[in-house]
Amino acid sequence: MIELRGVSKRYDARTVVDDVSLVIEPRTVAGIVGTSGSGKTTVLRMINRLAEPSAGTILIDGVDTRTLPGFELRRRIGYVIQNDGLFPHRTVRENIATVPRLLGWSRGEIARRADELLELFQLDPAVFAARFPHELSGGQRQRVGVARALAARPNILLMDEPFGALDPVIRAKAQDDLLHIQRATQTTIVLVTHDMDEAIRLADRIAVMADGRVVQFGTPEDLLARPATPFVERMVGVSDRSFRLLSLMPLERFVEFGTDAASDVEPLELDAALDAREALSRLLWVGAREGRVRVGAGGTHGRIRTSRLLDAARGASTP
Amino acid sequence: MTSDTPLPAASHLAAGRFAPDPVGVPIAAVLAAGLLLLPFATLRANRIVTGEGLSVLAALPVGAATGTIVLVTAVGTIGLLRLPAAVRLAAAGVLVAGLLLAVGIAPPHLVASGDRLARVSPASGFWLVLAAALLLALDALTRLRPSPLARIALLGAAIVGVALVFASDHLAGLSVMREYATRAASFWREAAQHGRLAAGSLGVALLVGVPLGILCARVAALRGPVLAALNVVQTIPSIALFALLITPLAFVAANVPGASALGIRGIGAAPAFLALVLYSLLPVVANTVAGLRDVPEAAREAARGCGMTDRQSLVQVEMPLALPAVLAAVRIVLVQNIGLATVAALIGGGGFGVFVFQGIGQTAMDLVLLGVIPTVALCFLASVVLGALIELAAPGRGLPR
Q1: How confident is the model at residue A261 (pLDDT cuts 50, 70, 90)?
Q2: CB-closest option in B298, B312, B394 to A85
Q3: Staple B125 to which of A144, A200, B38, B389, CB 3.0 to 4.6 Å?
Q4: pTM above threshold 0.80
């Protein structure tokens, strides 16, 4: 658990972070979203003491971070920065080995861990371990950057705009991969981004920052349905928040059984893996009033009524 | 006539097929001028009088003269044609070898065997043709873009070739080699002294300059004044700096106990060494600062973020990334110092300059050459080897900055 208690950061007369308090639960993903200059990166950098708070306390699992020297604290916390920050003079394997080497792991242990991580990130060690960063694509570099941060099995991973340099297609893949790895490793992730869609997609809870303050800290549903201030409203995008809200809902929540199918129109076949937003979009596209999904291995059919999806999109009356 | 008529295209094609190589034209011109208009060798009654310039035909026996003319013509033609770079390089190599062979034939041909005073030297035509051959080789190497290790291998082959020529005594009749023969022991002594001055001052400059550069990169307030002061040192002419150091070093030698036992004197090697160190500091400090400031901010941030201490970040990340820049300084300094160390002889510091200044004093130009040729060769050697090292030191980053 990461706790920020009344944390502020001032540079001379300028207050960059103003009295921020947050509690980030273990094994969750917390997003910090804000415009540039909102202080979100500074909050992240204060957690591993790359920046020292001017006031307030930060506790990790109940222990004040100031009880450790900064560099030792940072060896226990994974850190991923924008544009990967790989060491250009070191190979992929040496880059991944950075923190384990600083911690004095044995050579065999380091080599095993590097290979294990490369495989986890779908990079064949035989092909990629000896390459230099400039010989990799942007997406591969990003994965190596995350692998390096996870090398010493930290409980906490801090990420500063980790997907900022990637094109949209690769970014979506990288985000999915991160979620899978987070579920597998149970790492607590703090992710700074200016992209609300990314935060909604990845984070369990989102802190929205403006002018050094946290204006709202809540689940994505909270932010969409009950934005605390006009600024949060703008950040979540009032005009299409209906769809964003739907995108958070799995389709199975809307499945009904047993009722008679409306006989006038042939129901549209839908894939159960879709989210509510995608299902609604397909139904609207063909003008269907309901769809049909196959649930479970038995092949039972369930109904999805377009009207229920529209109700859910109204926000105030979520099912 | 409109532009799409076939005639201009056809004539363009023809021009392309018969157009000579752009670099080959001046080289061929220099080869022709050197061979036909200028003397190939000089014959003098003794080592200090002015001599008489002899053309290729006069300086060499008929067979050797004809061979030389044919060889130069052939290589000039190869230079003019658009042939592969490897062929051009081989042609240049053959020409250099042929020239050395030819010039060695001149002394026994021109001087009666009993005459121990007469001197034969290569003349301007020889030097010009040699320079053109080296230019052709250099141009071919630039086009071949050999890897660093291949460059060092080629250099090694060239050194072995030159060493074989000297070992064969084929050139022993030339005046410069006779100057060498009478002072072989002092030649190698001064060579060692020259090496000590150039390399030793570089070593001290690195020991002082790299830490100073690291300090300047970190402390912005120090950077301006230090670099400005070193810049001022760089503008002082070398003879003036040597002279300026004589007084303080003489004072140190006289007043600091043990200083003179260490070899510190007002004149001699000490002021020369110190002056070379001072000249070396600017490139070393400036390049260390530039190399460290060019380290990507992301790499520095990542080093801290991974939990490196300041020292670990410097040693493991920042200095390795700045290494090509520091090596570039080593290259500049070594080439500069090998040249400047020649002047040390003026204040009794030794080195190849000894022969240069003795030769000037005696108006014996071949003695001057005995000092100049090895100095130039050493500069070239240092430059090629360090150029290759710089490329090897930047793995995975392609060409150095």
Answers
A1: low
A2: B298
A3: B38
A4: no
pLDDT tens figures, B248-272? 888 888 888 777 777 777 777 888 8
Q: Which amino acid is at B29?
A: A
In tens, the pLDDT along B283-318 reads 999 999 999 999 999 999 999 999 999 999 999 999
Residue of B nearest to A151 (CA): B306
Range with lowest mean pLDDT among A9-13, B200-204, B241-245: B241-245
Percentage helix, strand, coil for chain A under 3-state DSSP, each rounded to 5:
40, 25, 35
Residue B236 DSSP code = S
Rounded CA separation B261/B206 (Å): 25
Query: DSSP letter string over A228-261?
Result: SSHHHHHHH-GGGHHHHHHHTSBGGGG-B-SSPP
Residues from chain A contacting residue B301 (CB–CB below 8 Å): 50, 81, 85
Tell me, yes or no, if A98 comes closer than 8 A to chain B by beta carbon.
yes
**Over the stretch B199-210, which tens digit does the pLDDT of each residue have?**
999 999 999 999
CB contact under 8 A, B396 and A132: yes
Q: A116: buried, middle or exposed (CB in 10 Å: 19+, 13-18, 0-12)? A: middle
Question: Could you tell me the sign of the dihedral formed by the alpha carbons of A100, A106, A110, A112, in that order?
Answer: negative
* Residue B306, min C-alpha distance to chain A (Å): 6
Say whether residue A93 is in contact with chain B using an 8 A CB cutoff: no
A83 touches chain B (CB under 8 A): yes
End-to-end CA distance of chain B, in Å? Answer: 50
Q: What is the DSSP letter of B19?
A: P
Q: Residue written as tokens 């060409």?
A: B399
In angstroms, what separates the C-alpha of A130 from chain B's closest C-alpha? 11
Indicate whether this complex's ipTM tops 0.85.
Answer: no
* Beta pairing class for A213-218 and A268-270: unpaired
